[in-house]
Amino acid sequence: MTGPADRLGSRETGLAARLRRDTGVEDGPRRPDTMPGVGLRSRDAGPADGAHRLDTGPADGPDGPDRPDRPDTGIADGLGSRDTGLAARLRRPGAGLMARVRGSGDGFDRRLIAPMILGAILNPINSSMIAVSLIPIGIAFGAPPAETAWLVSALYLATATGQPVVGKLVDAYGPRRLFLIGTALAGIAGLLGTLAPNLPVLVASRVLLGFGTCAGYPAAMSLIRRESERTGMESPSGILTLLAASSQTIAVVGPTLGGLLIGLGGWRTIFAVNIPLSLAGIALGLLRLPRATAAERQKSTVDIPGIALFAGMLTALLLFLMELRPDRWWLAVLTLAAAAAFGLRELRVPEPFLDLRVLGSNGPLLATYGRNLLTFIVSYAFLYGFTQWLEDGRRLSPSQAGLVLLPMFLTAIVVTTLTGRRKEVRGKLVAGSTAQLVACGLLLLLGPASGVWLLVLIAVIVGIPQGLNSLANQNALYHQADPDRIGSAAGLLRTFTYLGAIVAAAANAAVFPHGADSAGLHHLAVFALVVSGLLLAASLLDRSLRRI
């Protein structure tokens, strides 16, 4: 019969190996056990090693029950005992975040929550506040909407390109260092935007802000993974839910907060607000985030040419998708050339920026990236297209359109909160994509005289996939990604999010060439129905989701 100690021993290359790797502790000679048979069993332990149980009497036979007086040597006992060699070495000073191995009764270190959430919301709060400031900025600088739109596109380009790059650096140097650098850049960008004398400088501040806010989400996912390994929590669903719900909440209050700030001090205040947020983030990061482990303090090789080729490839692709025109064919050619050069380099260097062989062999993770792209194509197509139609096609004022959309955001928050602690991923994706199909079908019924009740009903239904799909994809990535590459994996997930936003913007431009009328909305609904159908099929056919 296999006892808890046996199960602990069989996992020695899992938890214990990761503990030694993250702390920089190397195996030394095995210390003699102070009690007979207690210790971690090696993978090749033979009959002589036995199960390393406490020798309290004759061994149980195949049919004999365990002795009632046999102590239970679980994880807490096996790793918590001062007589265990590995646990004793892990307690050495300087071992970093993973140095202290506690029992499974310990929860997530709550001191990490505040800096994690603050870092993760810097990007969505700046993405949402800018929406209400484009008109006053255009008036201040005498710029048309086509030029002020670069304030939105610049942040998307910088973030989509920078997220996986910064995520890779988080994996290499630890979350603390990158979190502090990124948060400081966000503050500098806020100061530059506050003092900007013209629109080009303002756009430059948004680019810097995009790069600065790249560190928050990969750093948070890295910290969650480390805490999961420290505490033995296989699925820290509560923390993952909090991370997702905080970003959704900011999406609700961001435009309102931006309008309030503009009313108090003009459009420059939405840039200035990043200065105190940055200072708070730096203080929390210095006080609460764990220092780098011994392995992270060692000099790591960074694939600079690989990063440059990846950034060039993605930038060319995004610029091509942002304005699809025949005369911009050269951007598509540039994208393909950069992709080919990037692939050849990454397959040849010993320490690539993105290990394409490892990534290519992880089919479930690639499927998650694809589902995330489909999810946000529909999400942003609805957010952009439906909002424009409410004002142009239904003739609602901006404030009335905002009130119609409010139930969508509130429903998303409620759904995320209620379902977040459920580990199951596949059911959330199926339910979310089905709700998307229903909502997109209802868009076909809309016209200039549609009742407000139907508009609100559609917004509520759309809120269901908003609360289910992104959380499910985030949880799937957490379980599918290599723990050593969780930062870069999380960054790539955000890249596919913004790629979906840009594809959706291109679709909206195609169906609304002369204004957001009802005919264009119906064309957009058909496009969204096809994408939602693909998402539902991808969720149903992915068998790997059943194992999460």
Number of strands: 0
Mean pLDDT reading: 79
Order of helices and strands: HHHHHHHHHHHHHHHHHHHHHHHH
- Percent range for β-strand residues: under 5%
Q: Which range best describes the helical content: under 10%, 10-25%, 25-40%, 40-55%, 55-70% or over 70%?
A: 55-70%
Shape: globular
Distance between the termini: 28 Å
Structural class: mainly alpha
- Main pleated-sheet profile: none
Low-confidence stretches: 1-105
Would you write up a description of this structure?
The protein is built from 24 helices and no strands. The chain starts with a helix and ends in a 7-residue tail after the last helix. By secondary structure, the protein is mainly α. It is globular.
Provide a concise account of the structure shown.
With about 550 residues, this protein is an all-alpha fold.
List keywords for this structure.
single chain; mainly alpha; 548 residues
Topology:
Layout: H1 4-10, H2 12-23, H3 75-80, H4 85-90, H5 113-129, H6 134-141, H7 145-148, H8 150-173, H9 175-194, H10 199-212, H11 216-231, H12 237-265, H13 269-272, H14 274-288, H15 294-297, H16 304-322, H17 329-348, H18 356-361, H19 363-392, H20 398-419, H21 426-443, H22 452-480, H23 486-511, H24 518-541
